[in-house]
Amino acid sequence: MEKGKISAFQMGIMMYHAIIPTAILSVPGLTAKYAKSDMWLSPIWASIIGFMIVIIVIRLYKLFPEKTFFQMCEQTVGKWAGKLLGFSYFCLFIMFTGNITRIYAEFLIGLFFPKTPISVVIISMLVLSAVTVRGGVEVVARCSQIIFPVFFFSIFIIILLLVPHFELGNLLPIMENGVVPSLKGAVVPQEWFGEFFLMLFFLPYLTDAKHGKKWGLSAVFVVLITFVTTNLTVLFILGSEFSTAYPFLTTARLVNIANFFDNLDAIIMSMWILGLFVKITVFYYVMALSTAQWLHLSDFKPIVWPLGILILELSFWSLPNTLVVNHIDLVSLPFWGFLMYFLIPLLILGIASLRKKQT
User: Fold this and answer.
1) C-alpha span between 240 and 28 (Å, rounded)
2) How far apart are CA 208 and CA 39, in angstroms?
């Protein structure tokens, strides 16, 4: 079905892009709602899920080498239960992809292109992503690898330029109300760390699968550092009480060097469009590949465009406005992400390990 090959390093970069672009937009605000001045601690607790999922995924791959995830499910819990799980993951992936696409469109229209029809923004991105997905895993990986340095270093250059605006006193008091607020704040970002489950769909196409665990765990660590750094930046500049939907963007707009180097909106917009393009494409690819595997098709490319239409319809139908998107981010996605990305793979691993011991 997929003849392309990628390296474990490229997989790690793809996982970074599958998480960070939307996370640094909205997670600082969602985390601060519960954790307040401890918002920088929440990603640390949430990252535990990420590290555990990488280990679970690697162990599943070693137990079922060259098997797809749905073949693992069917072999472990039976054909019909496996088919049902496969359909559940199809619904999850299409919901996530539609949600990401709508977040991208709302971000652009709300802040930069208020008079542009949202359909134009969504369709243009989905067409570009569909063309990339049809190119296969190598094309997706190379796009991600090219964009990564621009995206990653832009974030930290912006943070360095913001250092003169830091109010370090905003960090205090640390854990004034104990560890519970920061744990509550970790509920939302744990869903983003849960997306490391997608590694399972890329491991069979690695040229150096033995390094998959190393680069998977490294990607979790780099995502954690990015989370903590951006949360601290928001905290140092805006404090723990703010009402903006995109706090990191608000802080980035404060960059001003000698009244000459300022108004970085165009740079920020370009950076996030590149990052969100890779994120949408990674989810789109996994959805197309997994759907073809579930249906036992010989090629995933013929279903790329029909799935794009489904994503388009979902982004309009089930996500009519920003309020619904925020509710899904706070309530629905953390629950479904924890269940589908962590608990079910852990259950499959447990059953498979017991059966192996019995044999």
Assistant:
1) 10
2) 37
